[in-house]
Amino acid sequence: MPTVARNLLKAGSTAALACLLAACSVHGAQSQAQLPATAHAGPVQAATLQLAQAQATGSADPVATEVATWLRLQIEGGGTASEIDGFLRAHPDWPGRAQLGQRLQEALGAEPDDGVARDLCTTHRPTIPASLLRCANALGGPATTLPPAAVVRGQAVPLSLANLPAPVADAARADWVDGLDDPVQEAEFQRLFGAVPTPSDQWRRFDRQEWSGSLAAAGRQLPRLPAALRPLAMARLSLHRGDASGPGLAAALHGDPAQDPALALDLARWLRRHDQDDAALALWRGSALAAEQAAPDAHRPAYWNEREALVRDLLATHRDAEALAVADDSLQDAATARLDRDFLVGWISLRRLHDPATAAARFATLPAGSHSVITTSRGFYWLGQALDASGRAADATTAYQAAARYPTSFYGQAAISRLAAGGNAQATLNSALAALHDPAWSSGDALAYAGQELARAAAFLVACRDLHHARLFLLRLDQLTTTDTGHALGASFADGLGLPDVAVAIARNAGRHGLVLVRSGWPAPYAPPPSPALPPGLALAVMRQESSFDAAIVSPVGARGLMQLMPATARQVSGGLVDAAALGDPAINMQTGTTYLASLLQRFGGTEPYAIAAYNAGPARAQQWSVANTPAADASPGSPATIDWIEQIPFAETRNYVQRVLESQAIYRDRDPAPRARIALASQSGSRQGGQP
């Protein structure tokens, strides 16, 4: 029996059943400690495809052949348009549909058969220049020499709205408005279809690009705009980029900025970023408010994000009443923005303006409007704070008890500490965590889960050493799962296959819907090196938040490995001994990361929230916040003063990061990771590998 299957059976894991039913026992899967890294960034590698095809040949499970086909079709030129179309129809629930759709478009552009192309053009909207041209010829006449003139309905003519088949003309206009921002595709579209978009289409394209922050593409779009709209576009683009000329260009328009919703938002952002808070505040009292009222619903969250940023600036200078006025945005319909608004209004009302009644009403909307473990516990905890401040001690206790029902969350743990009132809060928390259990399942449930096509495909891919694509199948399967038991099985299955990052992802998503998977959602697949300078559980908590225990992940900015270290930081911490490549070794990464984390903890006098904030946002920013946000007299993680300090961090990412690390640290604190660690790092340094999801 293969090593991984034997080990999983010893652990009694559901994944053992899955591996035995699927690929692991058939194909001789190795343990994760023996698997090399594969397909990090997503493309199918030739060696991966060859191995999958070879393994599928000897497999009794038909899903193996289907997976090998799926891998082949992901490759440019890997299949015909008809073959890809057939695969998509036969496998509607498989992942990677966007990539396969792109390959279909490429293949359609090269399809030699007019009849096949004609059929595909009626069922798939062409989305790239090559497929648009092929559909124009297939639907309008025989294909021949391509532009500068193109053959449409048998005649060589420039492609324009007037002489294209209507479905192709409509598709070309929609494609131009909605996408094709890549410079190469953009240039090809212009060569073939540049005369097709209308002036309105050209403006809609720019509007989308500038709203979304695709500023380079928006800049290339300027010459194509109607002359009357170019000054407005230049003003928007200049403001969005932060150019000094931005306000002048906006003023030269001689109109109310509210006439263009994006212009008012861009101007408000520019003023705040240039420390002109008074002018920004005045804008929000007039033009920006009117612009927000006129903006499409899809753009409303962008206004809230800018409002919140200004509110944070105003709070930092104790302009509390003005901050409240900006925060109280009645126009928000999106659930996330609405709940963020109510929390911020409640916090300002309670902590700055000493209005607990208003605060209580706002905090009560959080548990009423969300199933999320994090949001619900946050709302109940702060409702308790507001009720306490109102002198309603009994009602406050009820609110704290409601928050304490979520002991895996930061605010659930804070509520437990508050209810302990000088007692042993850690013991109470440990008891609450011990009382949590993942949903139970039977062997029949496990067999049914493991027998699903996507589960078998994932196990086959693990056996083929393709961890990246295995992740896609597991996450897609969880998206399709509708029961608590199914989510618990999915997390356990992923963990058993050696993909704890997928287990963490499944647990996070479950938490958004009120389901806590404490056993599989907080794995400990690595044992960090002993460090007397670090509190128990902190290193594991940082790893869970940074990488979800994917040892080979590389962030878009270049942070690497389990503790997501930047190479420059690693070189500094190690005295030049650790480079970027070495950070792929889990042992080296953890040793370097824990050393750096310990140095931050020492720098901030042992105050864990400060050190955690520094790990995420940099020590200089954390130092600034530790002074500006009134250092806590009681700097313990769950103290009210520390909680207020965290809530005043101006970056949402860092506020969330600190809370998530602290809550995970409490879970890991008294959990010995050694029995669960699958890798003895001292003897198998660098052996675990994986791919980036």
Structural class assignment: mainly alpha
CATH top-level class of the domain at 538-668: Mainly Alpha
**CATH topology grouping of the domain at 538-668:** Lysozyme
Helix coverage percent: 55-70%
- What number is the mean pLDDT? 87
Number of helices: 40
- Spatial separation of the terminal alpha carbons: 30 Å
- Which spans of ≥5 residues are poorly predicted at pLDDT below 50? 1-41, 142-149, 152-157, 673-693
- Radius of gyration (Å): 28 Å
Counting DSSP E segments of at least 2 residues, the number of strands comes to: 2
Main sheet: strands, sense, barrel:
2 strands, antiparallel
Strand content: under 5%
Named at the architecture level, the CATH assignment of the domain at 538-668 is Orthogonal Bundle
Q: How are the strands of the largest sheet arranged?
A: 1-2
Keywords: Signal
Pfam families: SLT
GO molecular function, one term: hydrolase activity, hydrolyzing O-glycosyl compounds
Region (Disordered): 673-693
Report what the structure shows.
This protein is mainly alpha-helical. Among the domains are: 76-200, no CATH class; 538-668, Lysozyme, CATH 1.10.530. Helices cover 62% and strands 1% of the residues. It contains 40 helices and two strands. The protein has a two-stranded antiparallel ribbon with strand order 1-2. Helix 20 packs antiparallel against helix 21. The longest helix has 18 residues, at 335-352. It is globular, with a radius of gyration of 28 Å. Residues 1-41, 142-149, 152-157 and 673-693 have low confidence and may be disordered.
